[in-house]
Specification:
Mean pLDDT: 85
Length: 306
């Protein structure tokens, strides 16, 4: 890679020998202004995106995507970058990665394919269907099922809402739960298959149409050796909210399970001993404790509101 040497000695990026992409002047300018945190590959993709008219936010998304993994088939991928740079809709990194995987599969099957006439909405929809089908094909090769654990399901009706648990008893069910909730519960397949764990999906149904789509609100892991609920996670592995935590504890009491996970409502509680000192005014460090408590509360509020 002689161009690395040329780049290191300060040659113009437009004159580098064997450079993996062809830059415009605007791309070369963006390349020179690359943040120091970027690798060379990330700097190249970022410069391309900006040169094609991407917003700084979209260029950052491309910078941290799989597009920086290499520069093979560059004639195709530069058209993809141009397409992504010009998309008006909002997109997240997770959605972009799915689309890139899908496009790679299409490129392999259809070497002459191009991006002409495609829309982000249609492409994303096709990519998500492709990912599910791909996962199901992979699961079919190692598909596993297991018997339900002897734990009663939860059922509670409140006005026009029904809350209930569903025990997940196959590798496919675990995959679908993980896909919808954006976490890695599918990794528990072997634990469930050998009888070490049972996984439940806590769901919310509308009573006016209980057969309609439901909302998954938490995934619950029960250790069958100790009858303990060891984990309860919402979407993106977040802690359950107060309402969900109350429902889980109500189910635990009915099903004779022990709640072993720690619930965090996002607020800092002053330690009991410190609180007693504040009330009695006995410690010269009281104000330091109060100030530290206030700082922790503010930090938590900033984190959870962002």
């Amino acid at each position: 890679m002689y161009w690395y040497i040329q780049l290191g000695r300060g040659d113009s990026v437009l004159a580098l020998s064997g450079f993996p992409v062809k830059f415009r002047n605007s791309m070369a300018h963006a390349f020179r202004l690359t943040p120091p945190i970027c690798t060379v590959a990330q700097a190249i993709r970022r410069a391309q995106a900006l040169g094609y008219g991407a917003t700084p936010e979209r260029a950052s998304l491309i910078t941290w995507s799989a597009l920086t993994d290499g520069f093979e088939n560059e004639m195709f991928w530069k058209k993809v970058i141009l397409f992504i740079a010009q998309v008006k809709e909002e997109m997240g990194l997770d959605k972009l990665q799915v689309v890139l995987e899908y496009l790679e599969s299409l490129r392999v099957e259809q070497p002459e394919m191009n991006m002409k006439g495609r829309t982000w909405k249609a492409l994303l929809s096709q990519a998500e269907v492709w990912k599910i089908e791909k996962a199901r094909r992979l699961e079919a090769k190692g598909y596993m099922e297991w018997k339900c654990a002897d734990i009663i399901d939860f059922y509670k009706q409140e006005e026009n809402v029904i809350y209930k648990t569903v025990q997940l008893t196959s590798s496919e069910a675990l995959y679908e739960e993980g896909y919808e909730m954006h976490h890695c519960v599918a990794d528990y397949t072997d634990d469930c298959a050998v009888g070490d764990a049972a996984i439940f999906s806590l769901r919310e149904y509308k009573t006016d149409d209980p057969q309609a789509n439901f909302t998954r609100i938490a995934t619950i892991d029960v250790c069958l050796q100790t009858n303990e609920i060891t984990e309860a996670k919402g979407k993106y592995n977040e802690m359950p909210d107060q309402k969900t935590d109350d429902l889980i504890k109500e189910w635990a009491e009915t099903a004779k399970l022990t709640v072993a996970y720690e619930f965090d409502d996002g607020f800092y509680d002053l330690p009991m001993a410190a609180a007693q000192e504040v009330r009695e005014g006995e410690s010269p460090e009281t104000w330091g404790i109060i100030i530290m408590g206030i700082i922790m509360i503010i930090i938590k509020m900033i984190i959870f509101s962002s």
